[in-house]
Amino acid sequence: MTTRTRALAAGFAVGGLLIVTACDNSQSLPVTRPTTSSSTTTSPTSIPTQTLSPAEKDLKSANDAVSKLWSVTAELASDPYLSLGKLAEVASDQAIYQWRSILTGNRVKQLKQIGRATIVSSEAKATSANTFDVTACIDVSKVNVVDKNGKSVVAAGRLPRVQYTYKVAKIPSGFFVTKDTLQGKPC
Predict the structure, then answer these.
(1) Nearest in space to 63 (alpha carbons), one of 152, 171, 166, 186
(2) pTM score, two decimals?
(3) CA distance from start to end of the chain
(4) Distance between CA atoms of 28 and 26, rounded to whole angstroms?
(5) Among 45, 58, 92, 174, which residue has the fewest nearby CB atoms (within 10 Å)?
(6) Each residue of 124-143: pLDDT tens digit?
(7) At CA 41, angle to CA 39 and CA 45, rounded to 5?
(8) Residue 36: pLDDT above 80?
């Protein structure tokens, strides 16, 4: 087979794939149709986007701050060689001291987290223009903490889902969890 024949065969294969993909109804792709007027321009159907008010954006950002905290703490608990300075990206005040203490203690004991918690639900409420209470239900059922020998140190009666309430502050550089007492209840 010559190089030209291979190129043609590849072109037909790609063209055939595009035709098969275009005929596949399992995916809905935006379709642009020409108008019936003499104009030759086409325009896609516009989908209205929902814009959030500044207050709604703040509530979303407060919820996101809690999600980021859980993501960063999971990363730090899983890898003892990462700098705890990363906590400053998501927490301040009491929360950063709380998590530095927990993570340092676990590192001294050579404990390592396996798996990640997930946020099942969260709700933010503004307590002032720049502070929020975020109540979140956290699923920890897929999280294990093991010692240096790989033996689990998680209490046998640990709840699979726990609800915590966090304080979040909005400052010029972003949203930060400022208080995390880790006092939870079942959710």
Answers:
(1) 166
(2) 0.72
(3) 66
(4) 7
(5) 45
(6) 999 999 999 999 999 999 99
(7) 120
(8) no
